[in-house]
Amino acid sequence: MKRTQRFKRVAEPSSPVSPTEPDRNNPVHKTRRFKPKPENENKPHHPISDSLPKSESNIKMETLSRDFFQIDALDLAPRLLGKFLRRDDVVLRITEARINIRQVEAYRPKDSACHGRFGVTPRTAPVFGPGGHAYVYLCYGLHMMLNVVADKEGAGAAVLIRSCAPISGLDVIQQRRGQKTDKPVLLTGPGKVGQALGLSTEWSNHPLYTPGGLELLDGPEPESILVGPRVGIQYALPEHVNALWRFAIAGTPWISAPRNTLKPPE
């Protein structure tokens, strides 16, 4: 997919609202290079290499800049594919993401699936902050859902991380998930991603562009992607459910269900 490709828009950002950002002290991690383990060590049934370009044997993981995130959520979502999430020894590659929150101008219909449609609350305040922060919320009292805040301060937009592929820290991921498996079921679902990273709502508003803690790192761009309608928002209006705002890496098994609604972009 070329960077210049645009996807159908339903909304535009709203006016600024200033959030309160807590001060966090986290250990600083230096940029390091990832070298895949030998084939006979922790080799999964669906090899991790399936989620990486065949030519990548030595990946330089660098923290993304704040500017990377401060674009419209509809542009940020596909750009997050192939990037890495790192918390301590656990590294995941993002394989699927969807627009979760996207505010709009007052004179146009609001996204009925948007958490920020009712304004700023203690829960949603991070969404209205500047792009590049985490927004973590508890779903159904069980699942920690990781979102990446997009756009400028006050826009009220974020991208939900729906699925990932494990890159390192498989033992820790399995322990947190309570599953001794290396199949895609381990990480194909937003609640599974949050659990694998050991997240809680205390991570909400954490800057993902700052070394240490929870980081979002640069990674190789996928050769091709798939797009489809969002899932898990049956309560929303049909035009917002059917918007092609779900994105996934093509050719990887690390994608959540349903997969038959994902198609190459036109």
Automatic annotation (TrEMBL):
Keywords, alphabetical: DNA damage, DNA repair, Hydrolase
First-tier enzyme category under EC: hydrolase
Protein's UniProt keywords contain DNA repair: yes
Any single GO BP term: base-excision repair
Region Disordered: start-end pairs: 1-56
Function: Hydrolysis of the deoxyribose N-glycosidic bond to excise 3-methyladenine, and 7-methylguanine from the damaged DNA polymer formed by alkylation lesions.
Protein family membership: Belongs to the DNA glycosylase MPG family.
Identification of the protein by name: DNA-3-methyladenine glycosylase II
Higher taxonomy: Eukaryota, Viridiplantae, Streptophyta, Embryophyta, Tracheophyta
